[in-house]
Amino acid sequence: MEIVSYEWWTFCFRWLHIISGIMWIGHLWYFNFVQTPSMPKIPDEQKPAVTKFIAPTALFWFRWGAMATIVTGLILAGLNGYLLNAIKLGIGDHNPRFTDIGFGMWLGAIMWFNVWFIIWPNQKKVLGFVPAEAAEKKRAGRIAGLASRTNTMLSIPMLYAMAGASHFF
Amino acid sequence: MKNPLDSLGATVFLGFVLTVVMVLLIHAIA
Question: Does a structural domain hold residue A83?
Fold first, then answer.
């Protein structure tokens, strides 16, 4: 295999896609499995350590991990020549690989949308990056929390579809 | 009624249920 071969480039983007995907989903699971359940147990005077220092940094790598994942994923699907087949879920193609990876791509795209257009705008209000009244902050926290939980739920079938497309077909 | 997504355990359980639904859909389409 030549180092600059087409096959190598497709693999390179798959590798970058997995790296950025772990950056993204790793932080998603940190928020849902560690940070959110721990917050009620942390004394009030220690909470700013999380809200002012840890959460903003975690959110930075979380949202840019999501962006890198979708960009490398779309490039990978394009290089492999199945981007459009996957978008239409392989309907009419009679190829289960396109249907499988298509479900993974759609779930990932919904999750990416949730990160950039629901979770992040609401978290900016919660963390005080944009001004918001107390009631609005509370509402924003609820919306961001539910969107984050939705993504945690969707990550399970999404990873099945992503791994399955390479494993089964 | 409490939102099931308020529970981490229910969230993960629903993720597995959705996976089964998705696999059935994949087989139905492909």
Answer: yes
